[in-house]
Amino acid sequence: MEDNNKNLEKVLELFDRKGIEKRKQATTMAGILGIQYKSAKQKLDGKRGIRFEEVRKIHEYFREAYNKRPQYNGIFIVNDLHMRCNIEVESEDAEQVEAGVNYAYKDGEYWIVNPTSNRIHRSLKKVVNLEVLPAPRIAILDNDPEILELMKSVSNRFGIEATLFRDKLEMLEHVKRHFYDAYIVDWLLDYEENAGEIIKTIRANNAAVPIIILTAQLDQHENEIGEIIAKQGVEILEKPSRVTIISSILISHLFY
After folding, report:
1. Which residues form the domain of 96?
2. Which residues form the signal peptide (predicted)?
């Protein structure tokens, strides 16, 4: 309920800032989210919850980046696929594992539901409620279509939604009004341009979001890349990078 209240506060604050009169707020919300007026009115009255994705969609409609991450306390893992979720468990450890029932174990601050690894964890608790959240979103810029397709395939495999860009200017305009959970950018683009301007734009909107630079020209551009690492707090991956390395970095940033 607390998250719902915070989401409502964010929407009302945005409407107020944009000059949307109270009598027009439900109509505005209904139009943006594609829902009925009655549902929008109930959301604004606090009778129905407003989801994180709805808050982000409303902000993006007004060309504002909503640079917050959803709150979650668990990760559901099926083979390589990872899903953020909110989990409620029973207070006592499960004495035996029943077929078709989810069980969770604690790993740091997160509850982990991973049916294939239940047998190696002694302290399992029965899951009584599990809410799966939308997949984390990343934006990827590279002028090589094969690398873009590889990155999209890796992202899909691990439960990450990827938006692909081949053009620097297109991505530059996009990131000014859309927020992503992480960014992967090729350092050297067409016509000897680099990704410095995009990185600075992203960092100006969000001081903490992960930014990963891909490069095959580290030796030739060591000073430029070193400066951007120091000033903008980015990470560097040399091409060609192994899929396991890329996926491990993304999972670390986006789920744990």
Report:
1. 74-132
2. none
CA 2 – CA 6 distance, rounded (Å): 6
Q: How far apart are CA 39 and CA 251, in angstroms?
A: 35
DSSP character at residue 97: P
Q: Please report, as a single letter, which amino acid is at residue 201.
A: T
Contacts of 194 (CB under 8 A, 6+ apart): 187, 188, 221, 224
In a domain, 121, yes or no: yes
In the chain, how many domains are there?
A: 3
Q: Token pair for residue 204? A: 């100006």
Same structural domain, 182 and 225 = yes
Closest CA to 61 of 36, 84, 83, 33: 33
* Helix, strand, coil % in the chain, rounded to nearest 5: 45, 20, 35
CA distance 159 to 181: 13
Instruction: Assess whether 42 and 118 both reside in one domain.
Output: no
Residues 195 and 123 in one domain: no
CA 101, CA 115: separation in Å to the nearest integer? 9
